[in-house]
Design a protein that fits this description.
Three copies of one chain form a homotrimer.
Chain A lengths: L5 H12 L15 H12 L3 E6 L8 E7 L2 E7 L5 E5 L14 E3 L3 E2 L6 E2 L5 E3 L16 E7 L2 E5 L8 H11 L7 E11 L3 H8 L5 H4 L1 H6 L11 H20 L22 E6 L29 E6 L3 E5 L3 E9 L5 E10 L10 H4 L1 H21 L15 H22 L1
Antiparallel strand pairs in A: 1-10, 2-3, 2-5, 3-4, 4-9, 6-7, 7-8, 9-10, 11-16, 12-13, 13-14, 14-15, 15-16
Helix pairs in contact in A: 2-10, 4-9
Amino acid sequence: MLPLDSTELSTLKKLLDSRQPNHGLPRQFYQDELLYRIEMDAIWRQGWLFAGHSCQIPNAGDYFLYDVEGDSVIIVRGDDGNVNAIYNVCRHRGSLICLKAEGSVKRFVCPYHQWTYDRSGHLLLQNGMQEGLDKTQLGLHHAHAREVEGLIYINLAREPLDFDTFMAAVSPVAKPQGMARARVAKIMDFDVQANWKLVWENNRECYHCNVNHPQYIKANFDHYNADDTIPRIAERLKAVTTRLEAKLAAQGMSMRQETGMTEFPDPDHSIWYAANRTPLVEGYVSETMDGKPVAPLMGDYSDPDVGTLRIRSLPNFWIHASCDHCVSVRLTPNGLTHTSIRMTWLVAAKAEQGRDYDLGQLLPFWLLTAEQDWELCLRQQHGVNSHAYTPGPLSSYKEYNLDRFLRWYVNEIKGYVKNEYS
Amino acid sequence: MLPLDSTELSTLKKLLDSRQPNHGLPRQFYQDELLYRIEMDAIWRQGWLFAGHSCQIPNAGDYFLYDVEGDSVIIVRGDDGNVNAIYNVCRHRGSLICLKAEGSVKRFVCPYHQWTYDRSGHLLLQNGMQEGLDKTQLGLHHAHAREVEGLIYINLAREPLDFDTFMAAVSPVAKPQGMARARVAKIMDFDVQANWKLVWENNRECYHCNVNHPQYIKANFDHYNADDTIPRIAERLKAVTTRLEAKLAAQGMSMRQETGMTEFPDPDHSIWYAANRTPLVEGYVSETMDGKPVAPLMGDYSDPDVGTLRIRSLPNFWIHASCDHCVSVRLTPNGLTHTSIRMTWLVAAKAEQGRDYDLGQLLPFWLLTAEQDWELCLRQQHGVNSHAYTPGPLSSYKEYNLDRFLRWYVNEIKGYVKNEYS
Amino acid sequence: MLPLDSTELSTLKKLLDSRQPNHGLPRQFYQDELLYRIEMDAIWRQGWLFAGHSCQIPNAGDYFLYDVEGDSVIIVRGDDGNVNAIYNVCRHRGSLICLKAEGSVKRFVCPYHQWTYDRSGHLLLQNGMQEGLDKTQLGLHHAHAREVEGLIYINLAREPLDFDTFMAAVSPVAKPQGMARARVAKIMDFDVQANWKLVWENNRECYHCNVNHPQYIKANFDHYNADDTIPRIAERLKAVTTRLEAKLAAQGMSMRQETGMTEFPDPDHSIWYAANRTPLVEGYVSETMDGKPVAPLMGDYSDPDVGTLRIRSLPNFWIHASCDHCVSVRLTPNGLTHTSIRMTWLVAAKAEQGRDYDLGQLLPFWLLTAEQDWELCLRQQHGVNSHAYTPGPLSSYKEYNLDRFLRWYVNEIKGYVKNEYS
């Protein structure tokens, strides 16, 4: 917890009160270094962070690193099959232990002085040290780690938020996708020169889709909202929905019927996650360039016509899943004006590149859409930096989720400040 | 306006009082981040800033961007022929609107959500927004903009300094040059790793010219000052001056007769601009490598023998104009130790590259001289950073204008601090 | 001296008290910008800094630059044969005077306005300045400079620490090496992304040697310590020591007999230097890949079998000297997380590359060892940055010198803070 003097605290509180309802955030929210530190404590070190996919570490000892908020965390599968999140910092002199971004280990051996830990982080050997040190007090530090339907989450707080309600909400919707028995087809990393909130703001509305996402809008109904759903569109939506609902029900799945984007998050109840299934446009069974599948069916699906599954969790994750592949997005703030973004494409475990899928067909839909978004974010970052920037009104038709996100964000920070500094 | 607590304010005032008369500035003037912010507010957001040349945007809708002090400003010619300075920040979510450094537009359409503004910045369309928003309150924000004899100035203050007296002083001297009907032959941008004040300090004396500017001193008398004007030089100057004065008078122009550099600025009267004509060395009619013209005559000139015209305005502009071309310099601070510098070469509008002028002949004189200066500035920046730097005495013969600049600078900051913080 | 308000001072004092005995330093010691500034004042601007080797500037006017703590210092041999440390900052406007990293000068002429100084820094000429300036007050500023047995030290304090006791301790041990009549075979510069203290922490223990320094441990006994000196090793050491001691005594030299690394520094008496001779492993007469000499004997040596000579001085120097060559290391902090490191290989003055030595044989032993260490340091820097880092216990067998270094460091800072801020 950051020490704040009374002037700083009062300035911070004024800033948090300065957002006008149904408007964007004032400039200082994207410029203030102190607020950024508070965000890290209040949101990023409190919330559950998506780290990666279970299928990246199928066997005991398999690990990958996740660098977040100055910490290197080893995400490793333990001997009991559970995932552990272990800080990559030797208890002796603080050296990094794992140097490679991913791999498989029998034990963790610090390369500096060979202190040796088991795969759960217990200290086994410390040759060269005096007698009398208590090894049980010198195990590697842990973060919290959980898995849900093939998604690995970590939490850096001492006492983490409840994970079980999230799991209960997501699990039934996500299960048929079979992400726990998928394989990684591609990982791509991006450094987007924009504050992490701007990336979410972009994600929380499809007002920008019509012009900026020519691929995406061919497959989705998101960009149709209350303001522009003429009868013809409404009829299309109804037909598509009715048809798909019946098919899904037969397979024990359900879906959402509203037009526009699902309402998310829920700032009034501090709900930071959502999962739902929604129809694709007629003729599309996968979010691909032509709507056709590009890989074998995943999970429990026996029919490609399952619409699209979406899961989101604040502060750092969303995924779009089609019948044959899914694409996750992981955000990691990297200072006030940089966000590291990892995109991961999954296909069924049994699928083989070349034989069952081709990256040239798998990647373009979401890669193009993502790169279009990253460009929008950095333009906005440049503009909100300006002295001339003043937050404008949000569209009640098309930016309701953006407003929800901003309310959630301000609530979270206010709650934290109230708890910790009063 | 920056919030300053009482300790900061008192430290700032002490610093402002610490300059010894006729000496350079103490080290802290080049190192203090807080002072830099105050400079931005007191000088750069108050003064008139040269943005570019009228001939860059001859027609309605033509624009170029000027990035200054964190703000992107669109300099655009309006339908009434006047120049507008419009902040490049959408009133919706703050995105940049114009992405290209220059171009021509019918309307401004924000690429994020297509809010659409006319060329004066009035909001025309905001499809997707709810009813009831007042479009007249959502036009693009403006800075002030003025033109004088082909030079475009902007001002970021709410209530700008008087421009008319500047115009009255510069216009008669500048008019014959015909910069309003010129064309851009070349633009070059430099990132000079030196505080913006050091660039001015370098510009305000020709003490360094003899050794560092072998090209420049062949064409100019500036480096002769009271201390080294031996009778032979004095006679040369007198002869040159008398001759040129007569010729110019016949054409309705006048010139300055003193030796050395024109006194500028005038800190006692807060005068931030000057314009004058001065003779070149015998045999030189243009500031070129051999003194011969390299392009057709500009403006109203019918004879190449018009000496050289110089205009300066604080905090960011000077220009050297010969009969056939002129070269402007625009400074933009980019943090404590960086200055972005744009040089622009103009020739007569009718001149065509290849036929009427050749860049290989047009550029070298000022390009070499400028690069020599940028190098001097960065060496000085390196030195004044040292703990061992102590400001030395200025030459009363050769650095009188540097002393004037430093007095002007300190006065401006003091005046601002007095007005705003007491 | 940095101004500190009472909160900052009290935070600093708490931090200095927070180190647990026989443990590493808490995270803040590697992260706090304010502490870094205090370190610069308390240690780097107080202590004697190794600058380079006497043989780099054999003749009057020979100089090299040393950039340390924002200051460029000219290390120049004066007409009287003594070394001067002169700040590379003109007394006129503060420009750098010497631009090349090394060279030979008759006079120092500032390239900006040609103020001219003699080789001791006295102002000789200032053409273009008014009468009445007192040249004797405008000489270049000096730091302190001393030489001992071919090593040049400078001191940036107004009143430097005593140098004579250092000289008295080092001189008799170092003299036979003949560094004053050596030549530079190679200089290599490294930017190590680690705090300067981490580089010393690495240097002050050989616990990491066994695995990380396969070359080094073949030649040295350092990695054998109280904990692992089995009778066989003890006998080897005794035999080697007895033999070498006799040989050295015959030549008027002495050596150290303990196992492990010489105890250094001595925090209880604020001793910042040490020099000693120690045996190499059987069969090794030089710290080279195969233990054989790679260059002619240096200094007074008539027999290659002289063990190895080591000198260290805090905060920035150590050297390893064999019969035929020596390798010095000079540290220069470059912000919280960067250390500039210069390694210099010396051989006898008479040795000629190609004929008497070959860089392919001379460099690898220490170059490999050094690069192994720099890599260890940057991994540790990455780890101690983590929120999860907690200082661990130090090995009483193998990290006693690291503990001594940390105690010395904390004592120095505490002493400075007590003197200057109370």
